[in-house]
Design goal:
This protein has 216 residues and is an alpha/beta fold. The chain is built from six helices and nine strands. Helix 2 packs antiparallel against helix 5, helix 3 packs antiparallel against helix 6 and helix 4 runs parallel beside helix 5.
């Protein structure tokens, strides 16, 4: 990791910079040691190398998420709300560092990166509250003297692919919804902007996310 980069050198919490994948609650390198370079689009300078996992390791990530799913699906809505709320609060606390990481790898001005972190955190805050909503709803039927019940249940592992242009907001928009519902997550960030996603994984871990529930 190029910690001498003028933006990355200024981080308050350098531990947010992660170069390995987050699978099953552990930071792991590719089994064959494969990495890919991540560069600053402003000048082409290398920011660092990130683990480049293969298909077998992608299956390992899916298995970790599948194994974690029954327990996560069985947690009380209030528990999921509390955990997502802690994740949101950590994002706000580390807003400036998250914005700097995004600017370094994605290239948008720091003011726009700060705005995206606020946007990304807002999704987590919103779905933290949605998690506690009743999962059974009665709706009016088109048939006379009939009532329809809609049951919302977690269905399993959510596979997320996120783009380079909104590397944090599009991750939380998808992941927070899935996690609030009781689904586990495997996320594949853009190779141009992996550090933003990995920083969010670090904060999710600090928030107390159970092993295997959130994988990047």
């Amino acid at each position: 990791m190029n910690r001498d980069h003028p933006i990355l050198a200024d981080l308050s919490d350098p531990d947010l910079l992660r170069s390995r994948a987050f699978l099953g609650g552990r930071w792991v390198s590719a089994a064959d040691g494969a990495t890919q370079s991540v560069t600053d689009p402003a000048d082409g300078a290398e920011l660092g190398q990130v683990a480049s996992l293969n298909a077998n390791e992608a299956r390992d990530a899916a298995k970790a998420a599948q194994d974690a799913w029954p327990a996560w699906a069985g947690t009380l809505p209030q528990e999921r709300t509390a955990l997502l709320r802690r994740w949101f609060e950590l994002m706000i606390h580390h807003r400036e560092d998250l914005a700097k990481i995004m600017t370094a790898e994605q290239g948008k001005p720091i003011s726009e990166s700060r705005g995206e972190i606020d946007y990304a955190a807002a999704f987590v805050e919103f779905y933290a509250e949605e998690a506690r909503r009743p999962n059974i709803e009665s709706v009016t039927s088109h048939l006379p003297d009939a009532e329809v019940e809609v049951w919302r249940e977690p269905v399993g592992v959510a596979a997320l692919v996120t783009p380079w242009n909104f590397p944090s907001a599009m991750l939380t928009r998808k992941a927070a919804a899935a996690l609030a519902a009781g689904c586990t997550v495997v996320s594949h960030p853009s190779i141009e902007t992996p550090f933003s996603a990995l920083a969010l994984a670090e904060l999710a871990s600090r928030a107390g996310m159970p092993d295997g529930v959130f994988n990047v």
